[in-house]
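Board notes (copied after class):
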Amino acid sequence: VIERLGGVTRLAEAQRDFVENSGPDRFLRALFETARVEYAGEEERLLPALAAVESALAAWPDSAPLYALRGFLNLRCGRLAQAERDLDVAAEAAPRCGPVFLYRALLAAQRGAPRDEVVDLLALARECRQKAFGEADFGWRIYPELASYSLPLPDRVLRPRGRR
């Protein structure tokens, strides 16, 4: 069978093409590539991650998580207005999406917002059970946007000021 398909090289190319072009794999690739930027600090992966998210959005144009990821990546690319638009789309589709609040906090911090505003957004992310906050080794160090703020650890972030 392999010989009829053109040999092992052609079979490998066909598998790669399938993985890169199938919908579910596009979504997983977008998550993986963005995680490499966000959690592993691989800033050189920004453009490949953005391309992976764009590819996944072509398959799922209404995906709130994908718009949130694109918002984060646009933030890291310095495209703050586009990041805000992406996060607005994600928030409209999924109002209680923890990553949207986290990324909005990063955006606010990047723009020099007051500490209370940033903490309020982080508290909303925590209330929405932002998964990364529960990891044992999680810390703000992976978010350079927050470097100039003195912030409590995520498990100590209180409720937003209006809901205390």
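Comment from the instructor: The chain has a mean pLDDT of 81. The chain is about 60% helix and 0% strand.
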